[in-house]
Each structure stands twice: as structure tokens, then as C-alpha cells.
Amino acid sequence: DVKVTQSSRYLVKRTGEKVFLECVQDMDHENMFWYRQDPGLGLRLIYFSYDVKMKEKGDIPEGYSVSREKKERFSLILESASTNQTSMYLCASSLLAVYNEQFFGPGTRLTVL
Amino acid sequence: GNSVTQMEGPVTLSEEAFLTINCTYTATGYPSLFWYVQYPGEGLQLLLKATKADDKGSNKGFEATYRKETTSFHLEKGSVQVSDSAVYFCALTGNAGGTSYGKLTFGQGTILTVHP
Asked: Region B87-111: what's the mean pLDDT?
């Protein structure tokens, strides 16, 4: 079974802190994605990566950056956390083909005070 | 650009009732369509998918048919159970050659609650 793990289920940070969210997948998938989930808005894509050291902006990249130094690991970085970044963050991975399903991690609920 | 619109929720049903969650989309080309489900406290998991027009996806008693003429992919189940209580997301991935990398566009999600 594909497993996507995220480093924390719950995280509380203060405004201005630098925040790292880690995601690891164990199925050698090329693609990895970071989404945020907010009520009434569904999931919105922040960044994705289709290969090591490659990254592409999604729909809402402002205030975020990412890092993919190894194929199995994809990190989301909030350079200076703000209260409007309080949200549920979901990581996903998939094989390269367009129609392949994405496998999701359990999510990290981040609260920025 | 691509977009997905789901019916407004939340939806509350009694056990064994019939379920329909409407989903319509806007996309160029020939997208693949998906329904994902999120059970309480968990990440999303794929429920079913359809990759071309008139395909029917099915799983766990749920069905959805890819209707290109109406740009719809409505989710149905004949008899819901309490264990089906979850949030349901309709999604599509565009077919724009190799550049889409399987990026998903999601609807806003529909909360389903089933009472005994």
C-alpha cells in the first residue's frame, strides 16, 4: 500500500515564525503536491514537484516555498507565518501520468497565533 | 481555466436513503474525473474515477458517469449507510499533454451525514 506520511498532525506557531511541514512517500512516485484545505473552498494547490529539485507554483503560492532534495520527501516552508495561513495542509503523491490517482497524507492542522 | 462546482451542502440523510451529489465542471480538452472521500480525521482517498466520456466509475456501491454533453459527473449511491458519513470532493485533472502533471482541480466539497 502507498503510504504518505506528514511530520505532524497538529502544529501551533506564532506569527513571524518560520514553519517547516514535511511529507514523505514510500512508493517512488514522481509527483508530489501540497494543498491547503479550507471550509467552503475545497483543496487549493500551493506547489507541486514532478522531479527532484523541480517545483512549479500552484494556484496560491504566495507566502510559501518548497524543497525537494530527495524523491521521497517534499517540504513546505512558510517563511514568515501569518494568521491567514491557519489551515489544514495536505500532501499528496502520484505517478507521472495525468490520470493517475493522488495518494494523500493525513494532513497537518496548522494554527498560527 | 479548469473549475469544478459541487452542490451546496451539507447533506443529511437517513440510512438506506438514495444519495445524489451533483458535480459539474469546466475544462478544455478531455479531462479525467474523480471523486475523493475524506473520512473524519483522515486525508483524502480515491473513491472512483472515469477517464473518458461515457465511462462509469464505481466503488463501494457508489457510481458516477462521465457525461461530456452536460459536463457532469454526479455521484450516486442507492442505499447509504452511517459509515458513508464523510466529505466528498469532485475533482478533475486536465489533459494538456505532459504539462499538467496530473494536477487536480477540486470542488468545494460536500459534507454528508447519515443518521441511523
From this structure: 80
